Amino acid sequence: MARARKPASMPVSSGNPCPFLRALVAEGLLDDGVEPLSKVASTVARVARAGEGGPSLPPAAIWAIALIAHGLTPLTLARTAREGLRLSGLRDGPLDKHGAGSGILDPRGRVVERELARLDEFASEQIGTSGQSERGLTLPQIRRYMDTNFERAEGRRRALDRKLMDGEWPVLLKVMGRDGSGGRYLSVADVRTLVIDRALPKRMTQALAAAA
Ligand code: HEM
Q1: Which of 12, 168, 176, 200 to mutate to test the pocket of ligand 1 (most atoms within 8 A of CB)?
Q2: What mean pLDDT do residues 79-90 have?
Q3: Where does ligand 1 bind, in terms of residues with CB under 6 Å?
Q4: Which of 77, 109, 128, 154 has CB 3.0 to 4.6 Å from 132, enough for a Cys bridge?
Q5: How much distance in Å is there from the Cα of 107 to the middle of ligand 1?
């Protein structure tokens, strides 16, 4: 499949399992080491605004997610609030579903092509506002994808994992989605670019540069 652009350049640690944060590191928007929670929140909100229709993600909600990412004990929460988010140390924290998600990234951060191909099985042909046709997932299709991911993880999942998913793929749809004749959809090509190239869609990096 044709790629939208060349890979982003900054190296990303295998300890970061979030495809979106991996792209922000590779794009040079966040450091792979430690970042203050306020910077993580404002950067994510700024990137979201560069999406189609200027989606808004409340920085306070991002801040709260980042706060709990390394653990929920009072000591860990205090340390995360003080020191920030360690992007290379997100594995094994409360947000890590330990394989109960898409499986698109393996535990070492490598792309599993057959899982990426499986995402396409939940997609259908979408017509964008400018008339282009491409494979993509609408919100109902994303929900079916997440339900199936949760079902197949029976025996090795927490009930919380299904709730966590609602803060992942649907949020990616909000941020990176495109408006189509059948409603907003997440382009399969854009997801491939995000996970394989660790890059945002070109239209978003252009919007970010224009807003700078
Ligand atoms: C501070 C903010 C964030 C933190 C700490 C975070 C952390 C994580 C972690 C630990 C995972 C791995 C979960 C797993 O085991 O599957 C993950 C996955 C994911 N995150 Fe994030 N994330 C953040 C923000 C976002 C945002 C803003 C988006 C969308 C725009 C996003 C989209 C995703 C997606 C799509 C997955 C993949 C789920 C799967 O493979 O099933 N994340 N995130």
Answers
A1: 168
A2: 98
A3: 17-21, 40, 44, 62, 65-66, 69, 90, 95-97, 101-102, 104, 168-169, 171-172, 175
A4: 128
A5: 14
Average pLDDT over residues 182-194: 97
- Domain membership of residue 29 as a residue range: 19-211
Question: Which of 164, 122, 168 lies closest to 141 in space, CA to CA?
Answer: 122
Residue 33: per-residue pLDDT? 94
Q: Is residue 8 part of a domain?
A: no
Examine residue 7 and state whether it is found in any structural domain, yes or no.
no
Residue 125 has pLDDT above 50, yes or no: yes
Distances (CA, A) of 25 to 33, 86, 145, 193: 9, 12, 26, 14
Longest CA pairwise span in the chain (Å): 53
Q: Is residue 10 part of a domain?
A: no
Residue 199 has pLDDT above 70, yes or no: yes
Tokens of 133: 């046709």
